[in-house]
Amino acid sequence: MTTSFADTTGSRGRGSLTDRTDVRVWTATITAVVFLALGASIGALAISKDAESSVPAADSSAAVTTGQSIDFNATAPAGFEARDPAAPAPLPGTVHDVTLHIKEVSVAIAPGVKQKVWTFGGTVPGPVYRGKVGDTFRFTIVNDGAITHSMDFHSGMVSPSVAMVPIDPGKSHVYTFTAEHAGIYMYHCGTPPVLMHIGMGMYGAVIIDPPDLAPVDHEYVMLQSELYTGKHGADPDLNNMLAEQYDAVVFNGYANQYKLAPIRVEPNDRIRVWVLDDGPSQSSSFHVIGTIFDTVYKEGAYLLQPGAGGSQALDLMPAQGGFVEFTPTEAGSYAFVTHKFNDAARGAVGVFQVGDAPVMGHS
């Protein structure tokens, strides 16, 4: 079944996807800050010694180990369905009660590759939630995992010592905030070492719509992140994360998934793409080949609106986000990438199939 960005508490629109395809030409044309792992507290966040000891400490003298091999030329496996990229509709009402379960599971991250991950809601990334300025979100976070985790919503202003507390296995915690500022915001586990918890999949997004957001024909969400793997799908090595030795960079948790299953739109459709760089460590330069953005919204402000010029890329550092809007006028195959091509070559590529034109690389 298709994995949805929307939680069951809210309705959403759907974007159609074409049948799975192998667009090998894009891999062929793409040329091939240390982030500190926090072993103590972040702000006023407290963590128990038991929780700290559940994650192996990094060894600065240790050699970087090898994880799993990912074939970026692989075709889609039988029955492959990409994660639905459609942005969820805003949750109804003004007070949103959501239960979100922390789960430690194994998921597919590339054709033929499964990896143990730590998740919010059982998927990487976790669900995308959406609301309006002034809405109150009341999350009940339930830890179904084997170690201590926590939560940090960037979309709310709260006391870290009250809201971002450790949640032990089998326990739950209610995290409440009121959205006071528009934008797309990261949420993530805040348990030390934070690098490890984000690197293993504990991140997602909350969208707070700007007032008077214009209607569009299609609205999508792309969450960029690095993937770290461990041998045979076991836990990745924290030393790899410290050394930024990531195995892939992906949109929405799976390498090249929108190259394997392009997103179908029509000529002259107006498209909005929300983009969030969930990191944990690498920057993003979101670009759609063959088009120009006439609207750019970044970190709570419009940088560009129609009639004022054009933009070629949305530049984001980790934990930054925004959206772009554009209108492809001609049928064809429009690849989207991070223009940091070292990372595009490692899985951060997708395709908008505009109209009935063949997908690039196919007759």
Order of helices and strands: HHEEEEEHEEHEEHEHEEEEEEEEHE
Strand order of the largest sheet: 10-9-12-17-14-15
Q: What's the count of strands?
A: 19
Largest sheet: 6 strands, mixed
For the record, the count of structural domains works out to: 1
CATH architecture: Sandwich
Using the CA coordinates, give the radius of gyration.
Answer: 20 Å
Percent of residues in helical segments? under 10%
Computed structural class: mainly beta
CATH overall fold name: Immunoglobulin-like
The CATH C-level name is Mainly Beta
Low-pLDDT residue spans: 7-53
The dominant shape is globular
How does this model look, in words?
This protein has helices at 24-29, 49-53, 160-163, 194-199, 238-242, 257-260, 341-344, and strands spanning 95-110, 113-120, 128-132, 136-143, 152-153, 172-178, 183-188, 203-209, 218-227, 248-251, 263-265, 271-279, 284-288, 295-298, 301-304, 314-316, 321-326, 332-338, 349-354. With 363 residues, it is mostly beta strands. It has a single domain (24-52, 71-354), classed as Immunoglobulin-like. It has a 6-stranded mixed beta sheet, with no helix packed on it. A 5-stranded mixed beta sheet has the order 11-19-18-13-16. A 4-stranded mixed beta sheet has the order 2-1-4-6, with no helix packed on it. Strand 1 (95-110) and strand 2 form a beta hairpin. The chain starts with 23 loop residues before the first helix and ends in a 9-residue tail after the last strand. Mean pLDDT is 86; it is low at 7-53.
